[in-house]
Amino acid sequence: MLKGILAIAGHSGLFKMVSNSKNALIVESLIDKKRMAAYASSKISALEDIAIFTDEGDVQLAVVFKSIKEKENGGQAISHKASGNELKAYMTEVLPNYDEDRVYVSDMKKVFQWYNILQENDLLDLEETVEEIKEEE
């Protein structure tokens, strides 16, 4: 479930929303479990709102994560530190119709890094999320 999982510009990794205060969110890093305040001036993105461009439209990140999870039988994805060509080949395997002109290697690195962080933290229970996405379509 991707609810409450955030990416914050300028900070590596992913964060889980713990609480909110008057003018900030209190978040906890999924990497080192440290807590910090994330202010409205930070560019904060909820993973559940992120989509990947394809030739037929946008595909929610949860659907991409589910595809990776199936490919890897629940294991780790390719390292985000792999070469650009390796990342592109892997992306083609998990999302064959991704838009090669609008999805950059830097985007792929984030997707695979995020997937691996979620996998390490056992946060890849995506069945409900993917079902909700299909119902909305």
UniProtKB/TrEMBL annotation:
DUF5606 domain residues are 2-47
Record domain DUF6852: where = 50-118
Organism equals Labilibaculum euxinus
Q: What name does UniProt use for this protein?
A: DUF5606 domain-containing protein
The record ties this protein, via Pfam families, to: DUF5606, DUF6852
Q: Which InterPro entries match?
A: BVU_3817-like_C_sf (IPR049281), BVU_3817_N_sf (IPR049282), DUF5606 (IPR041218), DUF6852 (IPR049280)
